[in-house]
């Protein structure tokens, strides 16, 4: 693998000027992710090992232990070379299963050069949001459908967000940014359930047509997703539901975007998967 990825001249259609331009960009190391225009089109540089392990990673580990909830565990932390190896391995695994992914064009000890896969789903959603709400929401449903198909192949993404999906054709969604590997920290079915919940944090907030879109999206995911993933999602929601009331109280003081997404996604999925609570006995007979 390394022999195929460490020679810039081996990249198809590279000119001497492209090699010089790309080497200069790799040497600059100005941004973690950088788009570089070459004679045959754009490529993306992703740099690794430039940041420290986030504090939230340690907090996640502590919370997972405290509550006994595997879905809270973070992906194993790796150094820069380990992150590069993980991303290449996961891209190759997804490609082997017929999933559209970026091509790895070059690998150094601290960076990857990847093919351009524009447009991202986020860019397409932004373009459709106000001019065609139906097409906008149909794209959200397609994201859920392709995530379900991904899960049906025994895979999971780790952080499914519209910015990490791309439009690979009229009826195809591709995936990128494989820095997470939750199945290395929890059972696969749990990782897939978390994938769906994370997607719905975005989907329920973005949907222009409201709950009708969420219903179509969940049904589309469920068509190909493993039953074990749905069972794990149900258990996740039993736990997350305990935080709905406190979150609502916090929201009365300040309803930030993260709280809003948590409430909308968790409340909707609870309504789909969990039976309603018995009526409060204190209210019995009040409507008689």
Structural class: alpha+beta
Q: How would you describe the shape? A: globular
Spatial gap, N to C terminus: 74 Å
Largest sheet: 4 strands, antiparallel
- Per DSSP, the total helix count is 11
Extract low-pLDDT stretches: 280-288
Can you give the mean pLDDT?
A: 88
Number of domains: 2
Could you tell me the radius of gyration in angstroms? Answer: 21 Å
Trace the largest sheet across and list its strands.
1-2-4-3
Number of strands: 6
Percentage of residues in strands: 5-15%
Element string (H = helix, E = strand): HHEEHHEEHHEEHHHHH
Helix content: 40-55%
Describe the protein's architecture and organization.
- With 288 residues, this protein is an alpha+beta fold.
- The protein folds into two domains: 84 residues, 2-Layer Sandwich (Phosphorylase Kinase, domain 1); 153 residues.
- It is 52% helix and 11% strand.
- Strand 5 and strand 6 form a beta hairpin.
- Helix 6 packs parallel to helix 8.
- The longest helix is centred in the middle third of the chain and has 20 residues.
- It starts with a helix and ends in a 15-residue tail after the last helix.
């Amino acid at each position: 693998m390394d022999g195929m990825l460490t020679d810039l001249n081996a990249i198809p259609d590279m000119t001497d000027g492209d090699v010089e331009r790309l080497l200069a960009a790799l040497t600059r190391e100005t941004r973690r992710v950088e788009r570089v225009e070459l004679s045959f089109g754009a490529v993306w540089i992703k740099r690794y090992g430039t940041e420290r392990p986030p504090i939230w990673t340690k907090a996640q580990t502590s919370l997972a232990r405290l509550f006994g909830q595997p879905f809270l565990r973070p992906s194993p932390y790796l150094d820069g070379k380990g992150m590069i190896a993980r991303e290449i391995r996961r891209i190759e695994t997804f490609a082997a299963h017929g999933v559209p992914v970026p091509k790895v064009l070059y690998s150094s000890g601290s960076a990857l050069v990847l093919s351009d896969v524009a447009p991202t789903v986020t860019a397409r959603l932004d373009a459709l949001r106000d001019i065609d709400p139906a097409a906008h929401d149909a794209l959200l449903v397609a994201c859920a459908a392709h995530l379900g198909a991904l899960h049906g192949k025994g895979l999971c993404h780790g952080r499914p967000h519209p910015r990490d999906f791309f439009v690979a054709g009229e009826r195809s969604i591709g995936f990128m940014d494989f820095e997470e590997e939750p199945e290395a920290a929890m059972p696969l079915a749990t990782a897939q359930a978390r994938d769906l919940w994370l997607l719905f944090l975005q989907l329920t907030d973005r949907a222009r047509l409201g709950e009708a879109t969420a219903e179509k999206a969940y049904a589309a995911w469920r068509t190909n997703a493993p039953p074990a993933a749905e069972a794990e999602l149900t258990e996740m929601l039993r736990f997350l539901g305990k935080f709905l009331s406190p979150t609502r109280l916090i929201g009365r003081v300040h309803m930030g975007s993260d709280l809003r997404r948590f409430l909308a996604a968790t409340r909707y999925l609870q309504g789909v998967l969990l039976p309603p609570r018995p009526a409060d006995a204190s209210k019995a007979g009040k409507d008689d």
